[in-house]
Amino acid sequence: QAKWVRCFGMKQRVDHLLDEPIPPGHTLESVKPPKYWEAPLDVPPDPMAYVRKPVTSAHMIDSGKLSARDSAALTPSGTVVHGRYGDLENVDGIPLEYIALLRPAAEGAAALRALAPSQPGTLLVYGASQASGLSTVQLAAAAGHAVVAVVDGQHSGNQDMLDAVKGLTSEPGTAVPEEFASVKKRFSDLVGATVSGEEMGDADPIAFLTDFKSNVVEYASAYPETRPAAVGESHLDFYGKDKDRETFRDNMDAYLHQFPAGSPPVDPAKLDDRFTTEQYVIFKKKFNVQTSAVVTGDDTGHFNPAEIVSAMIQSPEGSSTAPKDSVFEFSIARNDLEDAGASAAGGAIVGAIVAVSCDLEVAAEAVDKAGPSLRAKAEALQFLTASQRQAFAAATAVVNEAKAAGAKVYVVGGSLPGLDSVEPTDEDVKEALAAMEIEDDGSTKLNYFVQVYRAGDYPVYADYAAHRAGEELAGPRQIIVTK
Fold it and tell me: Is 184 exposed, middle or buried (0-12, 13-18, 19+ CB in 10 A)?
């Protein structure tokens, strides 16, 4: 039985509840908030808590120890002094750890200035994950260049770093590992496609159909319908014990049931004569219906492509019985992609920048000391490690591509025999600092992957950071020690 409840309004019995006058001088300003609202209460410090010391300097690692020149120190007056470039101005929006990396950043700016391209083009960079190479990639991409970056062997095995460097470039630029660049023909093709752009071109229906017919004949020969399923002969061999031979066929039939059936025999002459381009388009459309049924969970029925091709050879189908066209369907009979598959052209090669890595430095010095003959250089390479030889091959590929285009080559992050190095000027330093500055939205033109060791709190971290930096595979980051 339902119950009904009536709600009555409340009658006000007092007409004026707030008719008392406000005393004189009784205002909002006269009422003071509690003390704990004005300032937090004094909480006694925890005697067991460790209070970090303020950071006053940041250092790079050089030759197994903290670098005094590649460092940034904060003075008592609040200014920043760099060990190499002296007092710095307008660096309030730059982290101190980044300022310690000012030399490699300025080298990247100096390299672009030395190339002095009249217009944006394609720039080749070896050692793109090194500090100097990373700055060159970002500054060049910000200037509108298409950068083909090569990640050296120290970091080429780190897929995350490779993807990060690739993301720092802009289309049609890209990043490849050192192993790719060491195959000079492949690297040359990549550079050529970046310079001139790569177009898909018009689809060739005859080429697609020829490949398909070849695959049909080979499939029918490899998996005939005389077999229980479309599997290799090794699946039918019995390797068990004699007592299990009787039940082998029963178990094998259940196992082979998961595979499609074999292909009926195909006459190559009839296939060439009757299976035309129109028949291939109809055959491809049947896959759309099958795929839609699989996605939606509908009954897919018996679908064996080999049997469908055989039936279409015996009795070709007309276009009226074919499924309808789809906007998103790939069809060899339709060539209306326009320029959807074309990539932008990066322009002529403006130069190459080589960032010195440990392996490349050793290999270049060994080849230079070997002598002028090609035999002596080859013998010198044979006594190097595989990583050193590969670094030399990849860097040589980068240099040769630039020289073949008549462009200049410069070295950053060290020196190499036979190549010119760059020396940053004051303008390069200012440009690097401007690129390091953090904008209001948190973005910067120049970014680094930094791992910081706070030796000011734990002095042993300085030695440990030097040890980590000296490892053969030091990892895809820049080590900075703060004090």
Answer: middle
